Amino acid sequence: MLLPLPPGDHLRPGSYCAPPISPYFHDVATRVASWRRQLIWRVGMKRSIAVVGTGRMGSALARALLAEGHPTTVWNRTKEKAEPLALLGATIAPSVLEAVTAAEIIIVNVSDYAATAAILRDDAVAAVIRGTLIVDLTSGTPQGAREAAEWCAGRGASYLDGAIMATPDFIGTDAGTIVVSGQVEAFQDNAAVFRALGGNVQHVGQDPGRANALDSALLALMWGALFGALHAIAVSQTEGIELGELGRQWTATAPVVDGLVADLIKRANAGRFASDEETLSSISVHYGAFQHLLELMDARGIDRSVVDGYGSIFQRAIAAGQLRGDFAALSQFLGKAA
Ligand code: NAP
What we know:
Structural class: alpha/beta
Bound molecules: NADP nicotinamide-adenine-dinucleotide phosphate
Number of helices: 13
Largest sheet: 8 strands, mixed
Helix content: 40-55%
Shape: elongated
């Protein structure tokens, strides 16, 4: 008996099955895969998962899956790092090939895409991934993700790329954030698996490169804050400010900075660069205060290499006549310096 399709489900050639030998076999294979998904959806069966790479993050991912009862096989190049997971119920695979052969979903988390390629782009492994879903949660570039998706499609595997916006201690918690891009159906069909990884796992687009693009944007924001913190620590230490005091004052100031960032994004989105009645602060005000920071850093011998980069953006904008513009006007001057 055929089960009715889940809401919104439909046959999706090429989603779980490889481009076929003939249109007939393609159709049959696609239907079988679709019925199987319906069965899993209906009876709540859990899919077998392989976690490839159990470093700090991969181990956290495996622990989260095991905690939710997902049958999980793990493989790590250095076997000892995978072994603690056996106590939590994981099966330790002696080789990548055995790990992926046992799995319907293959979650990869290694250092970079070169490592992913070294692991998966092996003839024997490539031969058994047809019909599986590969989820690469390794950090990388948008282009790297697009190439990986193409490589998987050529071998009959579905592909999702994810960027983890959290440290390992957040994985499996409500605040665990991961952005995922690629075939939305593959994401929706495996909602329970993604939910196990964190309370805030979101699909952000069909383009497999989108998660990594968003990741890079957010990393730029994060490193702005972290390098800023390094400078704040150096200034405080050379001026005899106790670091606990710095921490307390930052807690008080952070909402102001959050507001400035939100305003900057809003104005850049609208292209509102000229100062107006809603401008919070102009380039001239920021540039003036920035001179005080440079003076202090020079006086105390603090490395200026990062802040000199800020300076050159300020100067390009000012040279273009934007001194009185809203701070958001700087966003037009991030192209390569001439
Ligand atoms: P990690 O603890 O250093 O683990 C790296 C993993 O990659 C290990 O399992 C390592 O295997 C494996 N590996 C590296 N090169 C390999 C190769 N050529 N062949 C096979 N395996 C290889 O790093 P991590 O913190 O777990 O980070 C893993 C990924 O998650 C990275 O892409 C990172 O950017 C991303 N991420 C991490 C965090 C975080 O807070 N840690 C946050 C967001 C995203 P061995 O054990 O054998 O060396």
